[in-house]
Amino acid sequence: MVARTFKFRLQTVLDYKIRCEEQEQRILAEKKEILAQELMEKSEKGILDIVELKMYHEQQKQLRKEIAAQEIRVQQAAADVELQRMKLLEATKEKKTYEKLKEKHHGEYLVEVAAEEQKLLDEIATTKFNRESRHLF
After folding, report:
1. Rounded CA gap, 37 and 132, in Å?
2. Is 43 helix (H, G, I), strand (E, B) or coil?
3. Distance separating alpha carbons of residues 56 and 50, to the nearest angstrom
4. Buried-most residue among 62, 77, 85, 110 (CB within 10 A)?
5. What is the pLDDT of the chain when averaged over all its residues?
6. Does residue 41 carry a pLDDT above 70?
7. CA distance 132 to 124
8. 99-135: per-residue pLDDT in tens?
9. What is the DSSP string of 45-83?
10. In this structure, are residues 85 and 8 in contact, taking their beta carbons and an 8 Å threshold?
C-alpha cells in the first residue's frame, strides 16, 4: 500500500494568511522606522512635546494590539491545521478498519464459494458414481 502524505485542503488559504501576516509585519517595521526617524528629527530640533510623545505612545500601543491580534489569528490557523490533520488521521484509521473488514469478509466469501463448488463437485461425482454402478448390475 502506498503511503499518502498529509495534504491540508485549506493550505492555500493558510499560505495567504501567512503572507498577509508577513506583509503586516513589514508595514509595521516601516511605520516604526518612520516613527523613530520623526522622533529623532523632532528631538534634534528640540520641538518634541509631551502631547506628541503621548500620541506616539498610543500609536505604539495600538500597533502592539494589532500584532497580538495577528498572532492570535496565526495561532488559530495553526490550530485549524492541526485539527484538520487529526480529522484526516481519524478518517484514515476508520478507512483502514473497513478495508480490513472488507478483506476479511472477502476471504470468508471465497471460502464459502470454494465449499459450495466442492459440494457441487461431490454431488456430481456421487451422481456419476451412482449411474455407473447401476449400469454394472
Report:
1. 114
2. helix
3. 10
4. 77
5. 83
6. yes
7. 12
8. 999 989 999 999 999 999 999 999 999 998 888 888 7
9. HT---HHHHHHHHHHHHHHHHHHHHHHHHHHHHHHHHHH
10. yes
- Other CB atoms within a 10 A radius of the CB of residue 47 amount to 9
Query: CA triplet 44, 49, 54: central angle to 5 degrees?
Result: 120
From CA 119, how far away is CA 68, in angstroms rounded? 76
The three three-digit cell numbers of residue 99, written as one number: 478495508
Residue 70, all three cell numbers: 495577528
Asked whether the predicted pLDDT for residue 56 surpasses 90, the reply is no
For residue 137, what is the DSSP state?
-
Alpha helices in the chain (DSSP H): 11-45, 50-136
Q: What are the CA-CA distances from residue 61 to residues 35, 48, 106 (Å)?
A: 13, 19, 67
Cell output for 65: 494590539
Q: And the C-alpha cell for 2?
A: 502506498
d(CA 19, CA 26): 10
